[in-house]
Amino acid sequence: MKSDPMQPDLFENSSHSLPMPPSLRPVQKKLESLRQTIRRHDELYYVRSRPEISDAEYDKLFRELQELEGQHPELVTPDSPTQRVGGAPLDQFSKVTHEFPLLSLDSEMDEGSVLAFDQRVKRELGREQIGYSAEPKYDGLSVELTYEKGIFVRGATRGDGTIGEDVTHNLKTIRALPLRLKNGTGYPFHVVVRGEVFMKLPDFHALNRRLTEQGEETFANPRNASSGTLRQLDPSITATRPLTLTCYDYMSPDPSRPKTHFEAVSALDSWGLPIPQYRRHCRSIEETLAFHREMFDQRDALPFEIDGIVIKVDSFQGQEALGVKSRSPRWAIAYKFPPRKELTTVQGIAVSVGRTGALTPIALLDPVEIGGVTVSRASLHNVEEVARKDVRVGDTVKVERAGDVIPDVVERIPVPGETRGPEFTPPATCPVCQSHTIQEGPILYCTGQTVCSAQLKGSLEHYVSKGAMNIDGLGKKTIAQFVDEGLVKNLSDLYLLTKDQLLALEGFADKSATQLLEELEKSKDAPLPRFLIGLGIRHVGSHIAKVLANHYGSLQAIQRASKDELQAIYEIGPEIAASVESFFQEERNLAVIARMKDLGVQVQDIAVQAAGTAKPFSGKIFVLTGTLDSMSRDEAKQKIESLGGRVTSSVSKNTDYVIAGTDPGSKLEKAHSFRVTVLDEAGFESLLSDNGFSEN
Ligand code: IVH
Q1: What is the pTM of this model?
Q2: Which band of pLDDT confidence, cut at 50, 70 and 90, is reported for residue 18?
Q3: Which among 203, 280, 281, 618 is least surrounded, fewest beta carbons within 10 Å?
Q4: Annotated catalytic residue: which of 137, 149, 182, 312?
């Protein structure tokens, strides 16, 4: 066999590390030829939608491979088509730190904003005409796929953009995902592919039908179905729920990488990866607008959901020069479609209670299909809105579904000659705990903070959520059981749960109970910002929690802060200040926090800079370009920020330093033209150490 440097040595991937006995060579050859044939038919069927053989013929090939592998288990390779469903159910997903952060996109809804984007790009790149790549915006979940030597080795969800979950086993069940790349234009040794996992509409409907027959809960839309499926801990269940994939980008330090996005996606195609079926290289912004119109017209005929198009500056050099903001690139935007609307009738108005005690009226609708999804509930947001829209039971209403948001009642449609029911009366008591309600602005609140089980469930869900304390293994159902069984009456009770109590509940086995208790134990070491978010203080989300934590450094100091003092902090307004002060004045809250401390919760203090002592890089602006050998960009950024500096994406006359690694982009030229100090990696490291940077 001739060895191809781009193709991996098969034996490197099997458990077999000894040289192959000559007697096995013919079997090995047969196995590889079968796998190759099956891979080709997988690609034709799942990626190209152009099958060449019947299902029966395919099954025959597959069985033949299975049998032969059954006789020679030592010759099974991880990239064999038989290895798509493997692995025992997991207890939890492990976390993966993304090599490159997964960004999101700024969205635009109208042509004017898209033209303004083009103007900005032209101005910043100093060019009159910009080439764009336009693709549909698939409504699914973004994933990162890592291939080493052409073999699929790892796949992760987006997570928070920096850390995702390892869903390799589940991704392997997606038949459109090649376990081994074709050589095509030549793939890099190590390549990170970005794509979107989604479920086609017919598959989504079939899945919901099956779930209904089995008496299980159905999914609200294809995106939820994809997310529920991809985050299934048991890959054998995932395998029964057909997901598919499209890939729209890849990252690799490979110097021979194409020069444009459009060509890069073509490279993905040549490696056998599924790519957007519709995409266009546009020579001007006007051509992207035409693409938007065409996709909008086709949208209902497509067997999958798209919610707009993505417009990307085509040249990588242009992308590099434009740079990125904190969460989104400055070289791409999503140009969304207007939301879909349908008419239906209101059968009833229910009221739900959230963790803050806010009562949300919900219109119960005559089920209506909006863009392939059946909608039977829509939010009416608050009591004032119900009054303003004058929505009553029996009315005809227009309902809108915009991507991931819960459907909205847009307006009531008067029907000539209709007789209308009575006006909606805002409930005087909470539908869950019967405490009386009070109105603050447009919102009605339940006053039964400590006795309302709906509020308690909401607070617990919030405390354990990813953005707050991130305690795994505590879903909505489990929390409802804790509250309904009277095991948990406030946040601190979580830390009193015992194994016996858990085992007596539905859904717990020895292992899951032990694991949850371990998770809870781990969470006792609580980072200050996360703990603050977890408390659920009104107006204190992740950003404000960080601001407070960085300013005060300890929970104690925040507890003691007065409204006036809080308001003096940059970014803290009167509403936030009042909310924080009143939260910590409330005896019941202080008692719960004190009890959590007694039960071992230790909120970690963080170091704060004494007022007036500027950090060494305070006020200094850094730009990073190229690859650094000894640290990732994120690490470099953290080091700069820890010394008080700021990292921005593009070079301007305000930039103080450009740190240039290997293969710097056009930022380096810009730095020279603005006469900005340029440091190489060694220079950067000595700047760090001269300014007292240390790893601790
Ligand atoms: S490009 C930095 N292209 O939309 C570029 N994203 O709102 C970001 N998405 O997280 C991604 N189709 O999950 C890109 N053709 C496409 C896409 C696409 C769907 C999703 C993706 C991303 C989100 C951004």
Answers
A1: 0.65
A2: low
A3: 618
A4: 137
Burial class of 189 by CB neighbour count within 10 A (0 to 12, 13 to 18, 19+):
middle
Residue 88: CB atoms within 10 A of its CB come to 10
> Which residue owns the Cα nearest ligand 1 atom 16?
137
Instruction: Look up 137 and say whether it is catalytic.
Output: yes
What domains are there in the chain, each with its CATH number?
22-83 (1.10.287.610), 106-336 (3.30.470.30), 341-413 (2.40.50.140), 453-604 (1.10.150.20), 621-690 (3.40.50.10190)
H/E/C letters for each residue in 275-337? CCCCCEEECCHHHHHHHHHHHHHHHHHCCCCEEEEEEEECEHHHHHHHCECCCCECCEEEEEC
C-alpha 325/C-alpha 646 separation (Å) is: 13
Collapsing DSSP to helix, strand or coil, 109 comes out as coil
Buried/exposed 466-498: b ≥16 CB within 10 Å, e otherwise: eebbbbbbbeeebbebbbeeebbebbbbbbebe
pLDDT for 245 beyond 70? yes
Q: If you average pLDDT over residues 308-319, what whole number do you get?
A: 97
For every residue of 604-641, which 3-state class applies, written as one string? Answer: ECCCCCCCCCCCCCCCCEEEEECECCCCCHHHHHHHHH
Minimal-distance CA residue to ligand 1 atom 21: 142
Per residue in 366-383, pLDDT (tens digit) is 999 887 788 999 989 899
pLDDT(674) > 60: yes
| Ligand 1 first shell, C-beta below 6 A | 103-105, 135, 137-138, 142, 196, 248, 276, 310, 329, 332, 334
Q: Whose CA is nearest to atom 12 of ligand 1?
A: 137
Nearest atom in ligand 1 to 107's CA: 7
Distance CA 235, CA 238 (A): 5
| Test site for ligand 1: of 137, 249, 319, most ligand atoms within 8 A of the Cβ | 137
Helices (H), 78-110: none
CA of 376 relative to ligand 1 center, distance in Å: 29
Around Cβ 666, how many Cβ atoms within 10 Å? Answer: 16
pLDDT at res. 10 = 34
Distance separating alpha carbons of residues 352 and 354, to the nearest angstrom: 7
Q: What is the CA radius of gyration of the chain?
A: 28
As a whole number of angstroms, the distance between CA 95 and CA 97 comes to 7
**138 CA to centre of ligand 1 in angstroms:** 7
Predicted pLDDT at 403: 62
Alpha-carbon span 57 to 52, nearest angstrom: 10
Say whether 339 sits in a helix, a strand or coil. Answer: coil
From the alpha carbon of 141, which atom of ligand 1 is closest? 13
What's the 622 CA to ligand 1 centre distance in angstroms?
28
497 has pLDDT over 70: yes
Ligand 1, closest atom to CA 104? 24
Task: Go through the chain and tell me how many residues it has.
Answer: 696
Q: What is the pLDDT of residues 139-168, one digit of tens each?
A: 999 999 999 999 999 999 998 899 999 999
Q: What DSSP assignment string belongs to 579-612?
A: HHHHHHH-HHHHHHHHHHHHTT-EEEP---PPTT
Q: Ligand 1 pocket test: which of 142, 268, 328 has the largest number of ligand atoms within 8 Å of its C-beta?
A: 142
